[in-house]
Amino acid sequence: MLSRLTRSQAVAVCALPVVALIATAAFAPLPFSVAQPGMTADVLGENKGTPVITVSGAATRKTSGQLRMTTIEATGPDAQMSLGDVAGNWFRTDRAVMPRDSVYPSGDTVKEIEKHNAAQMRESQDAATRAALKYLNLSADKVKVDLKLADVGGPSAGLLFTLGIIDKLDGDGSGGDLTGGRTIAGTGTIDAGGKVGAVGGVALKTQAARRDGATVFLVPKAECADARSELPEGLRLVPVTTLRSAVDALVSLEKGKGKVPSC
After folding, report:
1. E strand or H helix at 119
2. Which domains can be identified in the chain, with CATH numbers?
């Protein structure tokens, strides 16, 4: 049949399947999620009318400044992402296109994912409490800490929870605030021994932090490069590897002396 057509007609006929394929690909669901800067919350204050940190069994102190944990928001695990959606967000600095399996475990339902994230948050809160009390040489049998943060899951607030507990109980250790009156933000997991772990999404979290007034951002040292990639103007990066290094850096910032590490 093609031999009886002109060259232009033949090209047009051959192009039809290709055009159809491209059109199908443009609207077919793809295994990606799109993330953006999410909410932040001051762990020294309240979230949705409820104190984030409540301590019993030990005297607490009045604090100034803020310690803001940061989040990212991603399209849901059942969201349908087309080629157009992916292409439209690929080059935006306030968006990140990521494989869905890197955001949500493959095969999990929405309820299973929510349950998993809630469990990670509880484990993070327990680790934060143990790390803070160990740092302050306080007994977990006598001092009880209740942490509440609505609608947030995962382990990435661990470091900020720990710093918040320390600031409420002991401040900088000499009567001052860990924040020095500043708005400090950050991210990072924590284990009971005080080791800080990487979390992902830091380039978006720095944007959320600066949007909500932070001037200093605590970042796991291994993620310095990612944090620098889209760093907002006016936000200072401070890399940390342990709880001790985070406290030391904040005290040095507060007192204006001593070495403060940078990415």
Report:
1. helix 110-135
2. 37-82+109-255 (3.30.230.10)
Q: Is residue 191 within 8 Å of 197, Cβ to Cβ?
A: yes
- In this predicted model, what pLDDT tens digit does every residue of 179-233 receive, in sequence order? 999 999 999 999 999 999 999 899 999 999 999 999 999 999 999 999 999 999 9
* CB-based contact 239:261 (threshold 8 Å): yes
Contact criterion met (CB below 8 Å) for 227 and 259:
no
Given CA atoms 147, 152, 114, 203 in this order, what sign does their dihedral have? negative
> Which one is predicted more confidently, 232 or 76?
232
Residue 249 Cα distances to 50, 178, 219, angstroms: 29, 9, 12
